[in-house]
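The following block was generated as part of the benchmark described in Methods. Ligand: flavin-adenine dinucleotide.
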Amino acid sequence: MTKPESAGYDYDVVISGASIAGSAAAILLARRGVRVALLERRSDPEAYKVLCTHSITANAYPVLDELGLVPALEKAGAVRNEARWYTRWGWIEPRAAPGGPALPYAYNVRRSTLDPLIRSRAEQTPGVDLLLGHQVTALIGEAGRTVGVRASTPRGEREIRARLVIGADGRDSAVAKLAEVPTQLHENSRFGYLAHFRDLPLPGGIGQTWFLEPDMAYAFPNDDGVTVLAVLPDKKRLPAFREDLEGSFLDFVRALPEAPPIDSAERISKIVGTVNYPLVSRRPTAPGVALIGDAALTGDPLWGVGCGWALQSAQWLVEAVAPAAAGRGDLDRSLAAYARTHRRRLRGHQTLAVDFAKARPFNPGERLVFSAAARDESMARHMYLFASRLIGPLQFLNPLALAKAAAVNIRHRRKAAPSAHLSRTGS
Ligand SMILES: Cc1cc2nc3c(=O)[nH]c(=O)nc-3n(C[C@H](O)[C@H](O)[C@H](O)COP(=O)(O)OP(=O)(O)OC[C@H]3O[C@@H](n4cnc5c(N)ncnc54)[C@H](O)[C@@H]3O)c2cc1C
């Protein structure tokens, strides 16, 4: 049964959390005629997530486009994200094929720019009521399903009834906890710190990522000439690192291959970070409830994929449930369709990320593909498509790609050691 006996909803949908996922879902739902209450516990419309390096992967471009945000992002100085990755085999430098299409991109843009922008767009969308200072504290249940929320507000407690409650309230989602949605936590064996700099040029003016096996680091140019630098070492290094956080951070960066010139740059933020950031996987639906963004799946920050998936999962949900959320279809079946899409699109990515979060060195498959990508442009493009989450793990590691990677490496070895090869083959 989809509709509870007692109708009388205040809204069709109530969303907990007006950050990336919640604001995107609110806009897309309201454009389809759904009445939305968008609740945000913080009262400041300019509030933003501090703990983020905000490189938004290319898989999110179509959602940014559908939201109509691309011109505003470009105007705000968001930087189209190109990247190169350091490995022990050298730099992987993805470039468009000669005469081929440009590489897909999205943007590096500070959350202090992005979050207020997307939230204000939601507020301006007819059909959305943005309710700041509203913190979801309980769910209203009826006949085994959720039919609304209770929220603490600047004017006291308030009940808001709705056909569907969306949890877009991040990794520690109150909605997920209150709905008792099954949750899996996966240990992350790295910790991370980041800081913002000015006057920190990067080679080629593009993003850099260092795979140091097992440590990681990255640097991204952002809007307003700001570069964000992040280090993600193995947790074994944490006690020593913490003894002198600033010194350790700077030394770590100075030791990177082709290190950014950190000593001549100006640091304009505190060094902030997290020492315990498990990956989270949740079932993305329950009766009357859907989870999107980090509330449904929190990936490993080192891959920089959470913002893109926050936007995409909002879009997948809206496409599946909009008619039913407005009372014109079967909500349970629509929620089941969303859950299937979410699982199909993200489960494989998360499985790989959970394994990599063990801070282990590259496994044989990764060695094969990363080394080939450092030596061959088409393999570099193949890696770029995966890192941009435009292809999934099955396509990334398909037999043809692996065979190609093996051929690249054999060719490379022959070139590197022609005399050894000649004497081995006897030719
Ligand atoms: C160190 C680090 C670096 C990262 N770097 C990147 C990167 O480079 N690229 C990338 O794509 N991703 C990155 N991420 C991940 C990214 O930050 C998240 O995936 C993204 O913010 C998820 O968006 P969201 O809208 O789902 O949740 P959030 O942005 O977490 O927003 C949740 C919202 O819900 C509100 N809220 C919470 N509880 C309640 C409640 N009870 N009632 C009402 N409102 C509530 C919060 O105030 C907040 O506004 C990084 C994460 C970390 C930790």
